[in-house]
Amino acid sequence: xxxxxxxxxxxxxxxxxxxxxxxxxxxxxxxxxxxxxxxxxxxxxxxxxxxxxxxxxxxxxxxxxxxxxxxxxxxxxxxxxxxxxxxxxxxxxxxxxxxxxxxxxxxxxxxxxxxxxxxxxxxxxxxxxxxxxxxxxxxxxxxxxxxxxxxxxxxxxxxxxxxxxxxxxxxxxxxxxxxxxxxxxxxxxxxxxxxxxxxxxxxxxx
Length: 206
Ligand code: PRP
Ligand code: URA
Known about the structure:
With 206 residues, this protein is α/β, with parallel strands linked by helices.
């Protein structure tokens, strides 16, 4: 399932994010804010259970999340989305996956992995600002599934139609929540209109 946000505030912030004159400090803040808006929508139908809570006046029935939530930033650009997720779910756990796209082949290269253990009914939310060819996210999902986990969702800020199609074919069970579906990929497999290289814009490396 692909879910594209229609939220007006998100679209406004995304426009500033795309602007080539937006520098890394503001870019980072915007990634943080947009991530919270996407995650908020992604969590709308998460499983909850009844629990008792005592207000200053009486005891009532409230709600609590049921699943262990694991946030998985794909290094390096995914780290830019991590703080926003942890602000919404402060007791989430975090697993890191290091993946970069080889500049020549455009294929993902895995270089790091550390996922939490001893999880109870975990839901994995993989975070990466860009879903371009889909290679990096597919390799990350493969890795998590190899560990025996099944409940996996993906959060991206911008996705290409090609990337969505490829990811859905490889992993039809994985829901994708995205801020925007853009037009296409260029010859270098960058998203158009996109925002350029998310990692470089987040960290000011170029
Ligand atoms: C970017 C982005 C994704 C990947 C998307 O990372 O953050 O991980 O490219 O491309 P794909 O869908 O075609 O795989 P990049 O390889 O630039 O690494 P970085 O985060 O370290 O900058
Ligand atoms: N990685 C990025 O950072 N941006 C793109 O448009 C494609 C891959």
